[in-house]
Amino acid sequence: MNRLKLYYDVLSQPSRVVKIFLLANKIEFEHKVVRLGKFEQKTEEFKKVNPLQQVPVIDDGGFILRESVAIMRYLCREKDVPIHWYPKESKAQAKVDEYLEWQHLGTRMHCGLYFRLMWLEPLVTKTAPPAKKVEFYKRNMEQNCDLVEKFWLADKPFLCGDEITIADLFAAAELEQPKLTGYDVRDGRPFLSAWLERVRTITSPHYDAVHNEINRIASKYNGQCPALVGKQEANR
């Protein structure tokens, strides 16, 4: 029997989702680390696995999937995991799908755009982003974090009900990403903060282990892009 292969980089939010899920559910898999910072996703070898040059990707005995939401739905159907992750009952499943569809233009887009502006682009340009642009992207991100606080978590312990689902993993990974820029989504949002702690506790110790790298980088560079930190030190 071929072991499941996971191609990933823990700096990728969806990659962390899949890895946490596999570890929390004791699904054995082969680690295939693709270092995005070294552009390993653009190598000819990886292009054979994913011509789209993105992670995560799974190879389940020759069956390859290249999109994280599709991957998670597939794993919930095909592997022996508790039903609460992706309920089979139509209405309960629809509530999970509701968040998964919303997130693309919600948490994923706005947290991701702010991270790109504050971290990825300066990494390439070695230049700090314009203040007006920072304000615009930050405001959009904060509005979406507030939606998680005031709408998605208004009357329930998890995004889609009383139990954790794959929607919670997707949201948590996206909301942890701004930590690299020095922004903590927990500040001033008690419901969101308590929910993140519930997700962390339920998936312990894997949640912390998988987020260890971004926590280490955030701590080392004090929430700034490494390229800008190095530039500031050189100018002193």
Description:
Keywords: Cytoplasm, Transferase. The chain is an alpha+beta fold and 236 residues long. The protein folds into two domains: 78 residues, Glutaredoxin (3-Layer(aba) Sandwich); 145 residues, Glutathione S-transferase Yfyf (Class Pi), Chain A, domain 2. 56% of the residues lie in helices and 7% in strands. The protein has a four-stranded mixed sheet. Helix 1 runs parallel beside helix 3, helix 1 crosses helix 7 and helix 1 packs antiparallel against helix 9. It is globular, with a radius of gyration of 18 Å. 34% of the residues are buried.
Number of domains: 2
CATH architecture of the largest domain: Up-down Bundle
Computed over alpha carbons, the radius of gyration is 18 Å
> Overall mean pLDDT score?
94
Q: Approximately how much helix is present in the residues?
A: 55-70%
Alpha-carbon distance between the two ends: 58 Å
Please write the CATH class name of the largest domain. Answer: Mainly Alpha
Q: What fraction strand?
A: 5-15%
Order of helices and strands: EHEHEEHHHHHHHH
Approximate shape = globular
Decide which structural class fits the backbone. Answer: alpha+beta
- Side by side, the strands of the main sheet go 2-1-3-4
Helical region count? 10
How can the largest sheet be summarized?
4 strands, mixed
Low-confidence stretches: 232-236
Characteristics of this structure?
236 residues, alpha+beta, Glutathione S-transferase Yfyf (Class Pi), Chain A, domain 2, 2 domains, four-stranded mixed β-sheet, 4 strands, 56% helix
